[in-house]
């Protein structure tokens, strides 16, 4: 008989070992290193399926977070990750039962959002769906002519360097100044920087580069780069010339950033010379429109696409209640939610399909009918495929 339950702290090491055998066999760093919030001892949130002899047959990692959106509202959320079933137990529906437990856990914690780094039918059958949009920016190494056109004042007043441990508190302050973000302590930011989860998933080495002026740190960028670039910059040796034909693998990618838009745009663009890189990819959440415009002015190619992964809304009424500060009028004047969780346009009493209310709540490009008022803007969410990737 299979038993489904929360793991105990002493069982996490075995879960990390099995996860590593599935996702990163013979690779460093390990899953335990990359995802300390799933596998480090503490208040365990993750669930396992245990076979008759007590051995772990399947695992579903669950990590809590708090989101600050629009500068005021606070949303509770969880993220699912490191989901696996040992080969000898596959096909028995263990992951589906674990997902049900994680959803129930999330609901009991009064968290209306469950982020999932995948779109398998396991998740979409349960009700998870694509959500919102992100702008993918591609920057190319500037030519000498385009570089000289940059503001000489900006270049002379801002200096780039690799971050040092003493910069963590200032970097955390910039992180906290973002109007839409994952809430985090300074120690928590340091933990995630050390884990470098998403950089390692991409097969890239991670650097934290800061921009500072006479007043101190004004912007930061966490960037995944080829390993020879990281090694050269950290050792102070000559940085290899950027490759015109990138090697097989993922391109250099900005994982996270912080600071005022003009400073952040300058820093991201300057990374092409600082590292140096032939090209650089950045995912910009739709609400960071000032940064998007500034990077476009610097020659970035922009493409709007849907967010990666899927999102399960465990309780749409609770979501609207926690996000109430976003809107100038009570959300009930735009939408109505019945006791069964069905969503209606208040003015017309028209029922919205799941796809329609997901689009209305999260996607600024989603077409609206006239019974959804214009002041009811989408909920801005931070990028889950970044520093806080699970």
Automatic annotation (TrEMBL):
Top-rank lineage group of the source organism: Bacteria
Keywords annotated in UniProt: Acyltransferase, Transferase
Main EC class the enzyme belongs to: transferase
EC numbers for this chain: 2.3.1.-
Protein name per UniProt: GNAT family N-acetyltransferase
Organism: Saccharibacillus sacchari
């Amino acid at each position: 008989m299979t038993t489904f339950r929360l793991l105990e702290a002493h069982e996490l090491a075995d879960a990390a070992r099995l996860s590593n055998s599935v996702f990163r066999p013979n690779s460093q760093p390990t899953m335990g290193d990359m995802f300390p919030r799933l596998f480090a001892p503490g208040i365990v949130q993750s669930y396992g399926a245990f076979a008759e002899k007590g051995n772990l047959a399947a695992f579903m990692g669950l990590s809590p977070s708090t989101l600050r959106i629009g500068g005021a509202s606070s949303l509770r959320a969880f993220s699912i990750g490191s989901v696996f079933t040992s080969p000898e137990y596959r096909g028995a529906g263990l992951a589906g039962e674990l997902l049900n437990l994680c959803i129930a856990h999330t609901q009991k914690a009064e968290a209306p959002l469950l982020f999932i780094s995948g779109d398998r039918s396991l998740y979409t059958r349960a009700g998870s769906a694509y959500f919102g949009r992100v702008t993918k920016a591609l920057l190319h190494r500037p030519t000498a002519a385009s570089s000289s056109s940059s503001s000489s004042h900006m270049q002379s007043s801002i200096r780039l360097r690799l971050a040092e441990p003493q910069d963590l508190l200032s970097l955390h302050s910039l992180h906290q100044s973002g109007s839409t973000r994952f809430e985090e302590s300074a120690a928590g930011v340091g933990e995630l920087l050390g884990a470098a989860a998403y950089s390692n998933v991409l097969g890239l080495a991670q650097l934290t580069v800061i921009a500072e002026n006479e007043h101190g740190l004004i912007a930061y960028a966490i960037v995944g780069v080829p390993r020879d670039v990281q090694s050269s910059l950290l050792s102070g040796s000559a940085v290899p010339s950027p490759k015109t034909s990138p090697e097989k693998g993922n391109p250099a990618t900005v994982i996270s950033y912080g600071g005022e838009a003009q400073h952040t745009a300058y820093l991201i663009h300057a990374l092409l010379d600082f590292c140096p890189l032939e090209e650089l990819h950045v995912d910009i959440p739709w609400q960071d429109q000032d940064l998007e415009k500034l990077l476009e002015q610097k020659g970035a190619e922009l493409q709007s696409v849907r967010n990666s992964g899927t999102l399960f809304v465990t309780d749409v009424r609770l979501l609207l209640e926690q996000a109430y500060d976003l809107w100038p009028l009570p959300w009930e004047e735009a939408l109505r939610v019945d006791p069964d969780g069905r969503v209606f346009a208040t003015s017309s009493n028209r029922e919205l399909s799941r796809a329609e209310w997901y689009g209305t709540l999260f996607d600024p490009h989603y077409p609206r009918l006239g019974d959804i008022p214009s002041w009811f803007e989408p909920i801005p969410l931070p990028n889950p495929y970044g520093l806080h990737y699970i």
